[in-house]
Amino acid sequence: MAESKTKFAEIREWIVEHKLRTVGCLWLSGISGSIAYNWSKPGMKTSVRIIHARLHAQALTLAALAGAAAVEYYDHKTGATDRYPKFLKPDNLNKD
Question: What residues does the HIG1 domain cover (predicted)?
């Protein structure tokens, strides 16, 4: 019988295949959550609220990119994934 993947394994595989889309969605949710949080604080100017939201989302995005880099490094170190993307054929890469 073939092993069925757990939900965690399926989610991890999707994240590994779509790293930039994941980081973009994380940025979007971070900036919208930060804007919602900052809007609940009275006494702040709108420009300050937007600047704070951007800074929070930027920090979250940098953390996500660092996490994606760590996952990529781990996968290459352990040989869990192919070295080249699916659309590149390794036999055509070193032609002079």
Answer: 1-83
